[in-house]
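Hey everyone, long-time lurker, first post.

I ran two proteins through the pipeline my lab uses and got sequence/structure pairs for each. Pasting them in order. The first:
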Amino acid sequence: MAHYDLWMIETGERPADDVVAAVREVLSGVTSGWLQVCAASRSGIREVYFTSDSQPGEKVPVPGGMTEEAFVTALRSRFAARAWIIHYSTETQAGNVLKIDADGSVDARTFESEELPARIRGVLEGRGPVEASAWVGAGPPDEEGAEHGIFRRGYDAPPPPRPKSGTLGYDKPLEDGSYVGAFQAWEGSAIEAVAEEVGHGETGELTISDATGSGARIYLERGRIVGIVVDGARGQLPQDVWAKICALVPSKRRLRRGVIQPRHVDRLQLSTEHLLRVGRGEEPRR
């Protein structure tokens, strides 16, 4: 992801439902809004953000007009733990990081042509995929099928809905010659095809295929790689699947926006940053 725009909350071993309940309490009285709660990292830190509908994707402001700092501060207090607001570009190595400690003290830092410290990179790289999509508005959800206003994601969840047939960017190209919604020729490497979508912060299914028809599918959520599949590699370790994807010489690509990772595709536990470095032959960060 070329630009990070993240709210990270330390929730420890508390389940996603506790996060949903806390957000509903903080935003009590708002008329509408969908919350995305991501899986917690091994350190118990998870990303939260809002979207315009139930599907993980483009982040929108806090419903009701509350500022992001006020929202994150109020949510953090429900867990008596740490939180981070991160706005940072990996291209310019510039941005701002606001950290709120468990005691409520605030540490705000600005970065100019400077790499993020390892401890902050660890927070970024530990982000998990969306675990629950929850309605936080007053009254019933504006979409059907949610259980107590929550759509579950993962193995125990019902199959996620796909965009309707004829949707631009899904099964129809956004415009003539666009690979978003239809296959188009691609002359670059496999890793750069993936990196491009990561940099754009895309949510959807990227398919790359070589001249023989062999290919791979990469599932993304807001520029994070959450699932990978390659032809002929079922049951293999994620590292081996990723190596096969990077070895492909694709001749065409297609991005289908709005496609959520299917249940039968394992949730990826490796960080996107690590996968891109490995794919480019770079040394992993210590």
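...and the second, right after it:
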Amino acid sequence: MGQCLEVYCIEHQWLKDTIDSGQDAVRRAISGRFRSNIYRDNDWNDLSNDRGAPNIFEAIRDLIMGDPRDLDDHLYWYAFKYIVNFNGRFLDNSQFCPFRGDYLGDIGEELKGHGAGALDLYSLAWGGSPSGTKVPQPMDGVNFGRWEAAEIKDGLAALSAASDLSPACASVLEWLKTADERGHILVGIHTI
């Protein structure tokens, strides 16, 4: 069984305006769009799908409505994943799913070799929620991270000038181009 790094391009301001916003319409839209997936994930985690029960629907409610984060942290990982998926653009991660061992560290060394040392793949996988958002980080292997504007611009400049990029580094370059063109950030969702 391998690990996976899903990467999304998303508007940073939208995330900041959504987390703890109290926008019940957005919460309902996210829960509605992904209802069958959330039911499946709740079932997978032996959680009730009943309204008000500790589950992923309630974690989404907590994150958007600004309620206390008193559920298990891994439920907020799922909630954050659905929030990002709702407004983010999924990017090609075929070079990063599946992977084993210290693959991210190996590709990170390649990025440094091309002058893109600001791009820390561990930060993209495990660096926590984007600035201006408060999402509890789980401690059981799955996680999330981000690259924000400065990292994207620095990395794009370095990798655009590089030659002979490996397929994984070329994939990272495409992520950076997409985010830069849109003025967005990159959010990584790490799964096992």
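Reply from user beta_strand_b:
Welcome! Quick read of the second one: Residues 110 and 166 are 8 Å apart (CA to CA). Residues 4-9+90-191 form one domain.
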